[in-house]
Amino acid sequence: MPDQQGDLRLAVLGVGMMGAFHADRLSRVVRGARVTVINDARAEQAEKIAGQIPGARVEPDPLAAIAAEDVDAVVIASPGRFHAEQVAACLDRGIPVLAEKPLTTDAESAYRIVQQEAALPSPLIQVGFMRRFDTEYVQLRELIMSGDIGEPLLLHCVHRNPAARPEFDSSMMITDSVVHEVDVVRFLLGEEITAVQVIKPAPTPGTPDGQSDPMLVLLTTEGGRVATVEIFARSGAGYQVRTELVGSAGSALIGLDRGMITTGPGTAGVQRSEAIAPTFIERFATAYTTELQRFVDAARAGRIDGPGTWDGYAAAAVCEAGVAAVRTGERVQVSLQARP
Amino acid sequence: MPDQQGDLRLAVLGVGMMGAFHADRLSRVVRGARVTVINDARAEQAEKIAGQIPGARVEPDPLAAIAAEDVDAVVIASPGRFHAEQVAACLDRGIPVLAEKPLTTDAESAYRIVQQEAALPSPLIQVGFMRRFDTEYVQLRELIMSGDIGEPLLLHCVHRNPAARPEFDSSMMITDSVVHEVDVVRFLLGEEITAVQVIKPAPTPGTPDGQSDPMLVLLTTEGGRVATVEIFARSGAGYQVRTELVGSAGSALIGLDRGMITTGPGTAGVQRSEAIAPTFIERFATAYTTELQRFVDAARAGRIDGPGTWDGYAAAAVCEAGVAAVRTGERVQVSLQARP
Amino acid sequence: MPDQQGDLRLAVLGVGMMGAFHADRLSRVVRGARVTVINDARAEQAEKIAGQIPGARVEPDPLAAIAAEDVDAVVIASPGRFHAEQVAACLDRGIPVLAEKPLTTDAESAYRIVQQEAALPSPLIQVGFMRRFDTEYVQLRELIMSGDIGEPLLLHCVHRNPAARPEFDSSMMITDSVVHEVDVVRFLLGEEITAVQVIKPAPTPGTPDGQSDPMLVLLTTEGGRVATVEIFARSGAGYQVRTELVGSAGSALIGLDRGMITTGPGTAGVQRSEAIAPTFIERFATAYTTELQRFVDAARAGRIDGPGTWDGYAAAAVCEAGVAAVRTGERVQVSLQARP
Amino acid sequence: MPDQQGDLRLAVLGVGMMGAFHADRLSRVVRGARVTVINDARAEQAEKIAGQIPGARVEPDPLAAIAAEDVDAVVIASPGRFHAEQVAACLDRGIPVLAEKPLTTDAESAYRIVQQEAALPSPLIQVGFMRRFDTEYVQLRELIMSGDIGEPLLLHCVHRNPAARPEFDSSMMITDSVVHEVDVVRFLLGEEITAVQVIKPAPTPGTPDGQSDPMLVLLTTEGGRVATVEIFARSGAGYQVRTELVGSAGSALIGLDRGMITTGPGTAGVQRSEAIAPTFIERFATAYTTELQRFVDAARAGRIDGPGTWDGYAAAAVCEAGVAAVRTGERVQVSLQARP
């Protein structure tokens, strides 16, 4: 384990699109992390990604990467068929893992991991269901927990991708795409899914022979709640992920890129409502962080990267005129000095 | 200057609400930064904030803080009347500064800073107009630059705060609030403001005697473009910041917490449109970052902080049933093993 | 048949909520119609409604009402079990009928009506599926017909009522509520429904014992297209009727009380779009009609019912000042004469 | 005056675009009205429009039209310069008038009309400010009256037309377009306008030389309230009419073609809200009227014009299957008889 001051040193196993994305964020955006080891079955790809990360080296053997001295934790983004062995090795060494979904390729091997981990003093394996960290899903879960929407009864999910490769078949639409909704349903409702049904409508033009796209997946939970999932991998219409919860006291919709929209009794009859940011913190928090990060990045090179003194001066001159305009009620000219 | 591997060491001058917010983000969220020195005229406040930041010490003299050996750059969030002296000291030492607005309290002193900085080889002072880092303002600027909206003609700005202290008078509404729109107009249109007019409607109940709230501010630019600004400090209705650009080929509105809404010719007549995320990266980038950051934070303490193996196993079991349901067209039961 | 100048004389059979609503609109809003005969099994109710309609009389026998000399056409809003006999009597006499749904209570008797009508030279029976006359449904159908949305693949329907009486059981949810979606699916897709499945989630609190509310109804069509219908009679959240069509080239949503929202490729990537009224006709057509109708209604009594000369004078005075303000660029006072 | 049973007989003076639109609606849509006389300075145009209206004749002299025996009321849509004389003639005869705006071309002549009318026992002249009959404006006015939005403080109006003829100059933008906002401000706030200022930004490409388009018009009322009006005649972006009221307890926006959107304190913090139709009446009232009108129009010719018995039969067959599906939980086939 690193001490509290030191950065966490990470190995990233598998640097295809997803792993490379993780490696990049861990090395440029996340605070307190350092990618030290890159592993990929394709040597060239490993070299390429490692070359983009200061201080990272390539380790061709994934198990050696997991065992390396300069590795405190592991991110597994390799193909699913390697996960069982790699995760088990991390558990053996006792270091934390972020494993991209799927945890393993089948329920049986996943359950063996569950059992192996249960023998440890505390859990070490996190699975990459990243929607649990999305602001809107968190909001929706909090709304359910609050009871303000009554008993949750139904979930309507829409999951559309713009396009898919021909080999992305109906089974992969379940295991690679609907798997997110499977976790969302469990996360939001807090109970297990007990049955699955799949309805296969006439396919969209361009669907490979023998496959179905779109499909409707019906999930039933322990408590008898039902979720519908439209999965449409070749929708041609951007990436749309929507979830509507229907409760006994209203409904809530997320995924229109505009925060949560609720319906239910309001101050003036039944309403459709969106929250408004109570203060500038909520509205501009991300802008502040971006401002600070870019300032820090530039300042480390002795530069700035944002509005400068001329902008400050011009604003001051306009505000002086503005204050005079408040006082006089007249239109006040602004005159700027020459720009050096 | 720190070397490329080391963190940038920062002094934060003034740790009222804004400075404390910056100090917190610099020490917890921003990568590559470390707050080493805290300064505030109120000793107790300085101690309190410094106590929340590992490795930070209090320096009671702002000029000593600027001169300190363990300071590579400075964030100035002290009251505006101290800015001129503090910024000048940073320029003297030649280190980067992020100065909260206002740069200084009047145009004359701000222009002296401009001149002083112009004598240096490169600019060192950034002013805290953080809206330039807000995704929506950046989008709007890019739209203007693209020419797709034609000539920019008018800007309608709304700036509402939920409430204000009694001493927040009409002049401060200009210098503390409208100053953001002043910069927005300059940023979006890329030209200077040449005249200001203020219209004072009947005030909202609760406005201090002799003051006006709301007010309408009219800004005219070099190119004859006009911006209207509604400033309403005691609106009682959350924090609402909206900007609508009217161009010769359409209009664009930001600030409804849902991305940019454009109007103009579309594929089926004149339309109001919002962009849809093209891929999961745009839609869930922030969720991925949050996932990684929380994983790293927990992993440094040997823990995880997210969905675990049971979630991975349960998803695998449901997906197995789902794949069977695709094949059979029947409703398939999911049976889970006992949870350890 | 009435001649072209004369009003159509109507009998309304059954004046419960729906029939009374029709009778009122026919006598006050619809042009060219006159309600002459009211029939209801409940004599008191018939008298009450007839009393509200100038020129209408009560006829206690529905078949006598259909046969009456002063009846050119019939609106049937009686309970469904009477429809078969009443519709047949209208067909015998050869006069047009608007029959509220259901046409009859079962498919067999409905088919006998179909056959009886087929023997006539032209159809005479219209069924009360009024959504076919709703602007948004018409727009959605035209979009499908245009081909701009590609092949229709899926329909997601939501049908929520605020509340329901205890005797409104799960079967009535199908025959009284989902029947609208049944017609919508046939209307939009232009093909017959070939299979139905109903999913019964855990019921909302307050659902009568042994009943299911909400339910999910899955409709499959000849062409293999699938529609999902959420029917929720006791939603507690207003009257919400939404329909989303998913096509191979985009999707379209109606029912958010804001016109049709489409997603698909746009001028700037994938977009969510709403049409904007091209001219004032589209935007204010209804206002113009209301204005004219209220003017006519008042003028028949020698009065007016809208803005008057003072409003016209005041507007003229302000516009005169406005034209001066255009010319001078100055603020121009408006001074009004004394109001008589 | 017609008796209560008879239709109101109308003369329409001036059948350019607006007058022809009125004549058409009066003869086809409005109940209880009949257009008997058409007048236009252009004989050919008068003949053309009269030819489209059963029972209408041409009268070349407007004063003769006003005096005609078969005229109970008059709609004036002639050019504004004829209004003073025509309106006065109607007052002399004592019959109701709907005069398109402007009432007359200048404030002085309008005031003479006010005085002439004031001598009559009751007002007879209605001015064509049709926005007062628009659902959204009525809603907004009711909201203000209710006090729920606090004191009205500001109005922001946007009025965009897609295009304008070259002769549509800046003065006409006031008298023909902004005149609507002038009335809206008076209607919503219930007080007179006391001052006008016009701001002229750089014009959009294509604006005739010496003219300004867009313009900003500032209206101040007796109570010190302020309205901003963006008038943009050559916006190229459809017909957009928006009005936002800012009150001391929230704000309300109409004109986005989706009902009134309010902001203010809600059940969960500050919210942006839209009302949801409480029952099917509000949601589908217009569809019902259209259904009935088309049924009546067709029935007068012995036909129907809407869904027929086959639609009723098919729906019955699907619902029978649906009821079976509720009972069995299984997928139930629908089998239809042969279509005759």
Automatic annotation (TrEMBL), chains A, B, C, D:
Single GO term (MF): nucleotide binding
Residue stretches making up the Gfo/Idh/MocA-like oxidoreductase N-terminal domain: 9-119
InterPro entries in alphabetical order: Gfo-Idh-MocA_inositol_DH, Gfo/Idh/MocA-like_OxRdtase_C, Gfo/Idh/MocA-like_OxRdtase_N, NAD(P)-bd_dom_sf
Superkingdom of the source species: Bacteria
Assigned keywords, A-Z: Oxidoreductase
Gene3D superfamilies per record: Dihydrodipicolinate Reductase, domain 2, NAD(P)-binding Rossmann-like Domain
Domain Gfo/Idh/MocA-like oxidoreductase C-terminal: 141-334
EC number: 1.1.1.18, 1.1.1.369
Record-stated family: Belongs to the Gfo/Idh/MocA family.
Enzyme class, UniProt record, top EC level: oxidoreductase
Species assigned in the record: Microlunatus parietis
Designated name of the protein: Myo-inositol 2-dehydrogenase/D-chiro-inositol 1-dehydrogenase
This protein's record includes keyword Secreted: no
Pfam entry (one): GFO_IDH_MocA
